[in-house]
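@here heads up, posting the sequence + SMILES for the 6-O-phosphono-alpha-D-glucopyranose run so it's all in one place. Ping me if the SMILES looks off, I pulled it from an old spreadsheet.
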Amino acid sequence: MSESKLTDVTTTDAWERLDELAESADVDLRAAFAEDADRASSLTFDAADLRVDLSKNLVDKDVLSALLDLARTTGVEERRDAMFAGEKINVTENRSVLHTALRRPKGAQPPLVVDGQDVDKDVHEVLDRIYAFADKVRSGEWTGVTGRPIETVVNIGIGGSDLGPVMVYEALKPLRHERLTARFISNIDPTDAAEKLGDLDPETTLVVVASKTFTTLETITNARVARTWLLDGLRERGAIGEGQDAEAVAKHFVAVSTALDKVEEFGIDPKNAFGFWDWVGGRYSVDSAIGTVLAVVLGPRVFSEFLAGFRAMDEHFLSAPLESNVPVLMGLINVWDSNFLGAETHAVLPYDQHLHRFPAYLQQLTMESNGKSVMWDGREVSDETGEIFWGEPGTNGQHAFYQLIHQGTRLVPCDFIAFATPSYDVKDGDQDVHELFLANFFAQTKALAFGKTADEVRAEGIDESIVPARTFPGNQPTTSIMAPKLTPSVLGQLIALYEHIVFVEGTIWGIDSFDQWGVELGKKLAKDLAPAIAGDEAAIKAQDSSTRSLIEYYRANRAR
Ligand SMILES: O=P(O)(O)OC[C@H]1O[C@H](O)[C@H](O)[C@@H](O)[C@@H]1O
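bot reply: prediction finished. Complex structure tokens:
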């Protein structure tokens, strides 16, 4: 994408048309459904195994047609093809963006060669090594230094090197190997490592240090803490003696990184390291070697099904015409809601307890990607970008924050996600509990769309004085996503769906969704502040008055 091609989207005819429609068109969902018996079927789409019902969004034919014009004007398809082909669309870092290459099947045609790198070959070489390693750990052939099989895999990573693995582990936990569990240490808050390692047996623990750069303060600090914990624990029980540290680390530590030289400097044998490449962004890396903990605990078969799910969604995104391309349509509707209807946030509400970390995962994917205020040619954007994503699983959220969505003053578009078949068949007497659960899922989107009029409230004999408080305006936009079951493949499809939605929105806004410069300043300042916190008077004096007084408060109140 050359810079000269970039047009500020807000100056396009399609944008102007959408502005007019936002002024004039007033989609009323009650009326829209009453007038058009086919509304649900014409706005429901399949993408791989996902059924996506967009009909309860505030769109009509005119809005959709203008949104599709917007996608054409901004070259969504061309940029999509450029991304899949390995063009350097991450302009601020001059990198390709090729997370989609991580899920290309062996032998995919034509082969993907970028800058002379045979990407398919490299991806599958690493995958094969990960699978071979995972098989060894799972079979018990790989043991700790005292010969005992591994029971706990501790993944140490943060951001993209944590959120994806945790979310997927939580989602697919019933599929784990019966001897193996996973734990995740991410925070530099010492509580995290202390509590996660505290009750583990070092003899049966394998640590995966996961860091794309292998320089992230949290991860490297926690990795050192874990190494000390391991070696001290083994020494205390007489399991290792003088000169056996390296052997113990080799049996209990593996690493995942793009910086294999740094892995070696840390003291992890490169034989026990799995690489990936700078064209995989951290928040797009759960399907790279960053998923090693998953391949070990859930198994290579599950991991390859997971990858096949991503691929199925990639194929849909690549081949479906814009009019029925689900990531495109969802991305466009998000732009409509946030740029034209004034939505400030976007809720994602999975009706599946196993997806309880999915909203947190999506927060990094969406907000780190699209929280930008300059376009990829350096000019400032002229309208809002980057939706604020948040959410909790249903039905818990219903008893907490749904009130605001139903009757508050803000527009909160919501994605509802549910599965036809539950992970567990549970009955309460004759009642299938999953049906009760899904009844809530269906009821919520219905109530949000159609509300309850004052007359309907009155008809229930409610006292006139409280009729307004009991009226529901409705017309709150929702998307319903369903699939037969939360399988590894379906989870991969869901993640890829949101990756591509983010891409579509980023392309329309003209921003680089693949850098994250905003994270850098805080990281640097934290390092710079260390001497002041440790008591260096000159460093304390050099701070602004607020930071200085906070540091002084800390120094006066720290109990040791
Ligand atoms: O994997 P690492 O290099 O340790 O990076 C971990 C995370 O930290 C960074 O600050 C970025 O904001 C994230 O995108 C990244 O996923």
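MO: The chain has 23 helices and 15 strands.
MO: One more: Residues 158-161, 211-213, 216, 219, 282-283, 368, 516, 519 surround 6-O-phosphono-alpha-D-glucopyranose (CB under 6 Å).
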